[in-house]
Fold this protein.
Amino acid sequence: MYLKQQIDADIKQAMLAKDQDKLRALRAVKSMILLEETKEGQSGDLKPEDETRILTKAVKQRKDSADIYRQQNRVDLLAVEEAEIAVIENYLPKQLSEDELKEKLQAIITRIGASAPSDMGKVMGTATKELAGQADGKAISAMVKTLLA
């Protein structure tokens, strides 16, 4: 619930400052939050982990679009996506560095007792839950593969 209130306040500030990039990104996030709250089976207010999941999804969508625009040399559209990514990432928890990610994954691997690439599913299940919002799924997967190899 805190995130929704913060987004509303920041939308007002962006409107007053006439910051179109920030306004567009915040409205998209607010829309995603409202859709999630009204989804069938939802009780209304979102849990912090749901908010993090929504923000992570929004960033991932924009990164995917940015990659496409980069491949097509659409600098104008790429700049818009990158500006929105920067705005949304301000609401996410701090992302882990590569060394921090490796350290946490090694701890998870040790705790689970994984030793071979066949144990990757067990490690990924635990790691994605524990590191939600702190690291990208692709980065987690790549690091787990190298650690279990």
Summary: The mean pLDDT is 88. Residues 67 and 127 are 26 Å apart (CA to CA). The helical segments are 2-17, 20-37, 48-71, 75-89, 98-112, 120-130, 137-148. The two ends are 42 Å apart (CA to CA).
